[in-house]
What we know:
Largest sheet: 7 strands, mixed
Number of helices: 9
Mean pLDDT: 93
Strand content: 15-25%
Radius of gyration: 21 Å
Helix content: 40-55%
Amino acid sequence: MDHLKESFKKIYKHQDHLRTFFSPGRVNIIGEHIDYNGGLVFPAAISIGTYGVVSKRDDQIIRLFSHNFKEDGVLTLKLNQLSYEKKHGWANYAKGVIDLLIKKGYACPFGFDLYVEGNLPTASGLSSSASLEVLVSFIANELYQLNINRVDLALISQEVENNYMGMHCGIMDQLIIACGIKNKALLMNTKTLKMEESNALFPGYSWVIMGTNYQRKTTDSKYNVRVQECKNGIYLLKPIYHIDYLCDLSVDELSQIKNIVKDEIIYKRIKHVITEQKRTLDAKIAMASLDVEAFAK
């Protein structure tokens, strides 16, 4: 942590009452495109992530700097100047958290200087944006003594992603980052937010995260389109099955659903959600029994 404090000093020219924070990234072991459909996901927090060094100020100014985006320099704002601006890039995630807290009625009476440094590859699918959101949420919770619990901090971070940044993700990324446990995966019910921990270590095996250098940009991708396609599926099936989420359906109902849903793409989305839910449950059982071959299937 000492090098982070030295980096803070180089940028802001002081080291007054520094506090350091860390927010992990995450992998999702199984349960893809489930968290916005009210189902079960099975993610784990990882040991790389986003670091923050912060110093409280005595005025209404917020200053933001990221080691990962040095070319952006220091962004200086007032607490009443937190509207989204595309040109602010990465800083919008931090701005969005403070903006939402203020709009929810939390007292944020003073500003701060924040230095951010992450070792998550950007746009790699390891949730660097959610890691940053949760980092700033935790920092604000501590600085302003808001007494917000971890689940609610995750929900605040998700709301920033959804409504401030415009990416219609589910709760999984923010929730596992806020609540992750060392060497554990968490089976998460994204409808109830209940979590069940599971040992994530298979004796004799290691988890490997591969860096393919494929740049993933969820806000510019078809992610939001897929979310809408799933909503269209709910719209078609709710009058018949009286469901709130696609994950309320079972595999046994797929044959009947295929006769109801004529749009091939929407049916594929529905089928994936229902079958992925079952695969997630099977994976949890295999992990609990240390059956690596069954888990790998």
